Amino acid sequence: MSDTTETSSATRPTLNSVPFFSIILRPVFASIQPIWKAFCAFRWLLSRPLNTLILPKFVPGFVNVPILKHVPHICIGEILFAVPAFVIAYLSYEASFGMKRSTDKSGYIASYSMYVIFFTANKANSLVTFVLGIPFERLIFWHKLWSIVVIVTGIFHFFCAYDRGGDEGQTNYSKYGPEPNIGKFAFEGEYQITGSLLFISLILLVVPSILSIFRRLYFDIWYYSHVILATAAVVLVVIHGTLNLLIVLAWWVVDLGTRYLLMTGRLYPREASLRAMPGDIVEISFPKTDALEYDPGQFLMISIPKLGFSQFHPFSISSSPNNKFVTMHTKSIGGWTQRLMELAKKESKVNILIEGPYGNLAVDINDSNRYKTVVLIAGGIGVTPLLSVANDLLQQVQNGREMTKIRFVWTIRSPDILQTMKDKCDLEDTSGVSLLDDRQSIDALQLDVYVTGSKSKGATVGNIVTCMGRPNIDQIFSETKEAAKKKGEGTVAVLVCGPMGMIDECRDASRRWSDACGGIKFDFHEEKFLL
Length: 531
Fold this sequence. Notes:
The chain is of the alpha/beta class. Helix content is 46%, strand content 15%.
């Protein structure tokens, strides 16, 4: 879940976060939109207490330790999400080692975790996303947590079976059998064999997934092994006796069918333009169609068959929903993105497979009553999703929305990326207002660009004057808070996308500068792709 504290109802809710429902209900969506809008309003209302931080502000905040740095930002919703996992683990322990231990009961409890794993594995059509509004990329942590619970409860179940014997009591190799041998027991009979193979599959699935460094260095190996092992786990768990899981798997099939048959195969464009841009940036673009609806800040999963048919990679959408073209930008940093850059230098048109859009902002910036001040902080190519958000906000202001301040802070290593993105803005028909367009003059906008590279110098790009050095995050929050107070506002939206150090610093600042009771609250959203 996110670190946001409070949000409210959207002014233009869409169903695109659950594409299956969007596709099925699109013909009648106009008639049911009031119902959907009321549901979204209730969902945002429910999120307020759930996203309240538990620990007081005097608890140390920014700690440069991977796990501890998140402790001060734990909210009520995260506790509620975590409690069932610990309850299942406890019940499994009691069923496996307690006074009334039972092999069957231990197995049933272990299977409950499998249901949660598959529900949180739905990418496009997650029911959790539909009900709670939590996008799948923020469910990844809980998917991992419940995967660990499956491993733990599986171990409990195995030792209970070894202690109690097989279906018909003690077996030859069980603990109290004629020849007790735990290794041989693991492969004695159908249930033990399928259970042991299932456990091995889960271990091979979970361990590399938890170790993010393995995914980053050997993504292809991780991805294909994940698909193969997940399929094997499904077959083995059904053979082992958990037939009810087939109900959950049926929805999983719906999810896969929506993504790979409807999205990529029928509804979305299958050709895109590629452009190699200065600063090692690649632009992917294609005409926006009625079928592809998206909100600012969302991303698409893209596959370019020439670089690998089944390799889908996340790309933030840098265009706003008002634009006639959908555009995405990525920086070449080696591996797949390097091959993409080489392809863009040779070819301007490529076949493409698209699924999505995915992701939801954790703050409802479309609520004009709640958010009159929005702060967007980007680092490097992390500007892409925030550029979409900023342009959409500027369009809303031009259409009459009242806003006090849209403060956009962008840190870059050299002015090259600014020049590249600005040139792109000047060349294209944006079909709306653009943050980097010299022609726009919106009083509420403040654009601050910082050049951090040691060998770079400040520069003026069009009407944009850059500053040398890094932004003072505390000063930004202090100035924003003071201005919001003078206008009588109660909440400020903060959206950040960039390096983890920047995200951590801004998350901590949002917590420290928020008032405990009343006053100003900074509602925080972070954007990252550590999938």
